Amino acid sequence: xxxxxxxxxxxxGSAYVAGGVNSGYRTGLRPHPLVFQRAYExxxxxxxxxxxxxxxxxxxxxxxxxxxxEVIDAASAQLQQSILVAGQTPLEYEAxxxxxxxxxxxxxxxxxxxxxxxVQAALRVxxxxxxxxxxxxxxxxxxxxxxxxxxxxTPDPAAAGDPLAPTPLPGTLGQEDEVNLIVLPxxxxxxxxRELAKxxxxxxxxxxIMFNTGGVLPLPxxxxxxxxxxxxxxxxxxxxxxxxxxxxxxxxxQKVLGLTPDITIFGKAxxxxxxxxxxxxxxxxxxxxxxxxxxxxxxxxxxxxxxxxTVATLKLLQSEKPHQAIAKTGTALMNGLREIFTKHxxxxxxxxxxxxxxxxxxxxxxxxxxxAMTANRAKYLDFAFELLQRGxxxxxxxxxxxxxxxxxxxxxxxxxxxxxxLSALK
Length: 426
Description:
alpha/beta, four-stranded mixed sheet
């Protein structure tokens, strides 16, 4: 494939946009950041006319694909009514009602423009509710790019030290020192109880499935034990479902895993590409925000057009039709990958669900960040680039997002590309 026009546009744009990208997570991709001219169904088309089967799915949000008629029609119609009113519209109430119907643990809702913002609101209300300050997070878990949580997301194990009591490591230059933050290894309930027993922990925040780094499932009984411990010691249990919410199932990972958190963070698939996130949780906690005892603001929260898109997306997900479609194509993709990897004598593991799963090479059975990072990431990066050159775009970190717009033909073409890419790598 030729990427010349995309490269030229990126280089020219770098004169006006720092680094030529507007998110640090779009840098460092091979061969360089791509520039796209359009998207449709489960495909992207770049400036060179290259057409890709897309498993980035906008980094997860596009669960219905890039051109779902119902969502586009709802947003277009709302543009004729209002864009931003600095007040309320019936749409936000309907969107919140749909969330509470789909997620039993969501008793009250507040909307945000990004998952990172919603995390901040959740931590603030947890501190207010408990009267405590400290927060427990886990190595390899990502909760946004703000200073207080961008710790030990991709830490160097040698610098992090003791695996049972890691040294918090910053994620960027210019970051403020960690304050009231405790970093722990995931999938180990004993270390959580060790910290909770001290009596000063306001909240425990985690991804229910570690999809941001490594693709690790919770060990049997682990999440239930954390729920038990947070209740016992009076800490708020926060689940970050920005990736898994409404994607793993219509009720999120918590529905599949049988989990009842105190607060949940939603984003990405919530509005199929529109800038909407939410925190939702128990009435007794969320009432602190509702009564304005805990400040939560945002000019663009519940913006009219985004709310119209949210309602349309949630209604489709509530029908279960998108998840039924994904169950078929996503399962076929996972099974096909397993067959081809086995044929090529790879040591591999595929972890997750038809709608979102993680692939790794030369490693099986990791249970936390440090063990997951021993996978052969260099081989996977080469694999991802070979696929890109064959018209299949996958995330270099190993996560695949499948949408309801992926067709049987897309899956078949993907598997052919996987086979030829692996042959080329040999």
